[in-house]
Structure formats: C-alpha cells, structure tokens
Specification:
globular; 9 helices; DUF547 domain-containing protein; DUF547; 2 domains; mainly alpha
Amino acid sequence: MKKIAILSGAVLLVAFFYLNNRFGLLSLAGLNAKGLPTKIVNGSLAYTPVISATSIDHSEWTALLKKYVTDEGQVDYKGFSRDKSKLDDYLKALSKQVPTNDWSVQEQLAYYINLYNAHTVDLILRNYPLKSIKDIDGPWTKDFIKIGEKELSLGALEHSILRKMNEPRIHFAINCASASCPTLLNEAFTLEKLEEQLEKVTIAFINSDNNSISTHKLELSRIFKWYKDDFKNGELIQFINPYTEVKIDLKAIFSYKKYDWGLNEKN
C-alpha cells in the first residue's frame, strides 16, 4: 500500500509539473465556465455569417485604450488609475450583458476578449504598483469576473470559454499584462471588425521580437508551446507560414524563448 501511495504521489507530481509547464499557471483550479455559452467557429471566421440578436457597445473601452495604451501596446497604468471609475463603469455594463446562444460567434468572441483584457487591466490597477502580474496571489484562478449572477476567473474565461471556441487567434488578442504577451490592442474588439483585428494582432505578434523565424530554425514564444494543440492540431509551421514572409521548411528546428513576465508598463 505504501508503494502504491508513493507511486500515486509521484504521478500527481509529474502531472502538476506538466500542466504548469503546459499552461504557464501555478494552478488550474477554478477553471469553470459556469454554464456560459460558447459558440464554435466552424471553418474560417472570415466566412462565418454575422447574425446576432444584439450588439454590445464597447466604445467606452476603446476610449480608455486610446488614451492610455500606446500603438506598441505599452500601458500607462498610472494614467489609467485616474480614470478607474470609467473602467469600473464599463465592467459593470459588461456584467449586465449576459451572453446567450442568440449572440453570433463574433459577438461572443469580442465580448469575452474585451472582458478578459479589461479585467486584467483592472486587476493590475487594484494591485498597483507591482513588477509582474505573477506578484498577485492567484491572478488566473480566483473568481472575480462578474457576468450576471455568476463569477469566474481569468483562467476559466481563457481555458473554459475562449479556447473552446475554436479560434486560435484569441491567443494573440488577450493580454496578460506582461512583456512577452501579445500587445494590448489600443481599441476594443468589435463585432464588425473582429476578423480584421484578429488578423492584425496575429501578424503583429508572429513578426515581433517574441519570435525569431528563419527558413530552417524557429525560436518561438512559449505561447506556441503552452497551447500547441490549438494551432492546427499542433502543426505550428502550417499555422505560422501564412503570417510571415519567410517560407519555413517543414523540417525546421524548434526551440522556445524565455518568457518575460515583467509588467507591460509604459516607461
């Protein structure tokens, strides 16, 4: 029995380190979508009809982003804090707009992406000053995002909702307030512009310093390691090739860059 207990403990330990490495989180607790609807992108979003029973106004979020986020995605958190009441108003408005299956997949995606990014900024402001989001206790596992009567975590929003929607470009749209994250777009994602915006952030990230790409060698962001299966079922070269001018050899050598969790703050 003792040997079995030791073996079981070892298996659990290995599983923990695998999941921590896979997702970049200290814990996967609290990843519960709480029954919120998640429509699936079938095929290409560019050819998916936009038929929605509602249209959410994200203009207040755009105004804040234009004011406090540079074109390079650096965030003026000190300035943002002076308009914290406006951010609070926007988050309260989002919490009252409970997604339904009548929303189009584009409306759901835009809503959940904006919800994630706005709450991440709010989380930083509530703990500011700090050097990294990882200085906060359980930033991705604690339930604090209100949608109607439900509360969920950033981790649940990402892993149990957005990743379930079969749109891999969300990984370049959501921002974790860190230097190695995809940059925070300085406008809200919207129903009408979603395809254009997702293409923009994907091209920007793949061709940024977060990746070094040549024909025979790839040094990629760890996002491509943590979420590999989300990108054409792990066929990374097939996913990346259309977004870069370099024609990557299918037998190119892979490695992954160190991830910088330092705050994406404007100097």
